[in-house]
Amino acid sequence: MAKELSKKYDPLSVEDKTYKFWLKGNYFSAKPNPKKTPYCIVMPPPNITGQLHMGHALDNALQDLLIRWRRMQGFEALWVPGTDHASIATEMKIVEAMKEDGVTKADIGRDGFLERAWEWKRAYGGRIVDQLKKIGSSCDWERERFTMDEGCSRAVLEVFIRLYEKKLIYRGERIVNWCPVCLTSISDAEVEHSEHEGFFWHIRYPLKDGGGFVEIATTRPETMLGDTAVAVNPNDKRYGGLVGKTLVLPLLNREIPIIADEYVDPEFGTGCVKITPAHDPNDFEVGLRHSLPVLNVMNGDATINENGGKYSGMTREDARRAVVADLEAAGLLGETKKHVHNVGACYRCSSIVEPRVSMQWFVKMKPLAEPAIDAVKTGETKFVPERFEKIYMNWMENIRDWCISRQLWWGHRIPAWYDESGQVYVARTEEEAVKLSGGKPLTQDPDTLDTWFSSALWPFSTLGWPDKTPELDYFYPTSTLVTGHDIIFFWVARMIFSGIEQMGKSPFDTVFIHGLIRDSQGRKMSKSLGNGVEPLEVIAEYGADALRFSLATGVSPGNDMRFSDEKVLSARNFANKIWNATRFVLMNLSDDFEPGLPEELAMEDKWVLSRYNALVADVTGNLEKFELGVAAGKLYDFIWDILCDWYIEITKSRVSADRSSAEKAQKVLVYLLDGTLRLLHPFMPFITEELWQAIPHEGESIMISSWPQFSQSLVFEKEERDFTSIMDVIRGVRSRRAEMNVPPSKKAKIFIVTDSAGVFVQGAAFIQRLGYASGIEIGSGYDPDGAIQIVTSAARVFIPMDELIDMEKERERLEKEKAAVQKDIGIINAKLTNDGFMAKAPDKVVALEREKLKAAQEKLSKIDESMSAL
């Protein structure tokens, strides 16, 4: 017996119980199965500091859509969940919490701090996982991983050792991006550049021999405190005689040489460049070539250190102002020009990054990048949309060595130990390092690895690597990576080269890139604008399915999308429509109903089944091409328009007719509901499960039912064409009646002139009921005088005017309406021809009056047309 549904759909009463039902049934789990084809997605691990935001909701709704679809198609579908330790973000959170307790890192030491960090992780780390479950994520939660769990930590250690032994990891003094707020180095990918208005200050550097000066231009005069040379191009004839001479560094009176180097562009600025090896990556390379001293003049917090003379202790901003003022006082400041230039900021805290020489650990990237470039060139890994391949290629072909050390305590500690002489020993354990050193006392490197180092191993570390597990053998390479375009450099590129290096294969065959979610005005969601939307609040008001469907309908691969309450409301109304349609079907089912299509099908049955069959092919094809938004739109149109507004309306008379006729219609209805609910399930999992359980069905859950298949036996081209002709007539009649404000209660005879009389004879009952006709006459001899005419591709339709309206009353109504409109036109014209009004009224007001005049004139034109027709 069919299950009874409540009158109104209440998402809150359905969603939690449905999710528990799925968990109890163990429907999310996957394991190696030689009888099935694997399909695997690894979840981009959200930070343990995070709370669910719209970006997470979109990312995970899309992954869940794909995994549910493939699961229904019969794949062994594994979605691996997990979270990221997020070293910088988490450490900042814990330090902030400690500050409230009046405690610092120095007070409690490394071990005490890590104890607090793990406590924090236990308290808050699972919060976002619980929130992901709220949107219906069908992950295999028994396989949930954490980037610092025992298995992932072992993988990180193993990769570090292997790369070090291959000389692909090294320690050296290099210029790094330094965040003075997070107090750690960060990689190039973690620096966000934006244009800032600044100045070009021209500064005169006197020659030691008193023979004049050279002039340099800089945007950062405070860094001159660390200058160790001035460079010119060796081919620049202006300065040929100065190369090798000595300058006196202004303010500090330190002697520095003039050198020649190809790096200098003689066409830019004055052709003389100050060289500050400790604070500029290009200057650092010049310094290496010329054996220049490297003089660091900044502390970690971007204040000037003891090498900065009297400016020591100042912030970089205060030092800049003081240096400029002192140069001006000394007569050494030339012109100052406004200048717009790119400035790098920390992606985490947005503070200006400081290029700073530092001893750090690096990954040598060129040997790793080359096979990763080939993997995309050969199509081993494809980007959807394809245009993101260029972005990936550009980054990889110009990649610099990756700084992987971070001056933090929370994270994977670098497995390197030092003896008293500074000799380094890289090993898996301290015991192994001591053995390598010959028993010397050792101290471990205090730094931790970049968070992205462990994330780069995610596709294989989560499947058991470095052990040879059945899961790794079966599910690797994974299938699809779903992610935003903002982390192609951070994560996607690093996973590809890490997978190829450690596993010999790229970690996934397809990278599906989606855009960012913006607000209804197209602005990026941010705290500063106050335009962020909390997904859990949306779910509480509208339901998870409404949120998911509104996000899916806006998806176009690679493009940003706009979020609006109207879209979610529309999706909720769609859910209500499906609910009510299912209730209608269930209300009329007999207790002994047996599902399955009837042997005899009416024209309208064949039409709707043929349309449904095409929908199956279209939606499947769209999903194969990652056109998720297109697929969602087609489902919406079919369910709302074809199934509910047409077929259910058409079958209402059959359902209430004799048992045989009713049962045939009900069989088709249940067949369509079953199929469309299964097609819709990946998009709206909760309501489809609830409704599928209510209708006659086979199986335990819709999520493990089979995906609908296109069937040649359900292709009915003639019936589809014929019934479309009938629909065109009904639409035309209803549209014309609406234009004339004729109520449905006012019946009128309809005359149809056509060469396809047989088609319209079959559809006469539908036309009469849905076209509000008092009768239907089909033939070729009707005299159209005094009738409204509607033309379709298959027929001409006539409705006697006098049966639709009272001609005299209609004339009176139109006369009154015409007079009112003419009065409005007169008033508006009077304003627009009044010189005083036109002189004083704001442009917006004038424009509004002109729009009102145009609208009134258009209305008058339509009234005149109606009167002419009468």
Task: Give a written overview of the molecule.
- By secondary structure, the chain is α/β, with parallel strands linked by helices.
- Helix content is 46%, strand content 17%.
- The chain has 29 helices and 29 strands.
- The strands form ten sheets. A four-stranded antiparallel beta sheet has the order 6-5-14-16. It has a four-stranded mixed beta sheet with strand order 10-11-9-12, with helices on one face.
- It is globular.
Q: Please work out how many helical segments DSSP would assign.
A: 29
Strand order of the largest sheet: 6-5-14-16
- CA radius of gyration is 37 Å
Which class do the helix and strand fractions yield? alpha/beta
Q: Quote the beta fraction.
A: 15-25%
List keywords for this structure.
870 residues, alpha/beta, four-stranded antiparallel β-sheet, 29 helices, 29 strands, 17% strand
Quick synopsis:
With 870 residues, this protein is an alpha/beta fold.
Strand and helix map with partners:
Layout: H1 11-25, E1 38-42, H2 54-72, E2 76-80, E3 82-83, H3 87-100, H4 105-124, H5 127-134, E4 145-146, H6 150-165, E5 169-179, E6 184-186, E7 191-206, E8 213-218, E9 229-232, E10 246-249, E11 254-260, E12 272-275, H7 281-290, H8 316-329, E13 333-346, E14 354-363, H9 366-377, E15 382-384, H10 388-397, E16 402-403, E17 405-406, E18 416-418, E19 424-426, H11 430-437, E20 443-444, E21 448-449, H12 451-455, H13 458-461, H14 470-475, E22 478-484, H15 488-503, E23 508-514, E24 517-518, H16 535-542, H17 544-553, E25 561-562, H18 565-587, H19 603-624, H20 628-655, H21 659-680, H22 685-694, H23 717-739, E26 748-753, H24 757-762, H25 764-770, E27 773-779, E28 787-791, E29 796-800, H26 801-804, H27 807-832, H28 835-840, H29 843-869
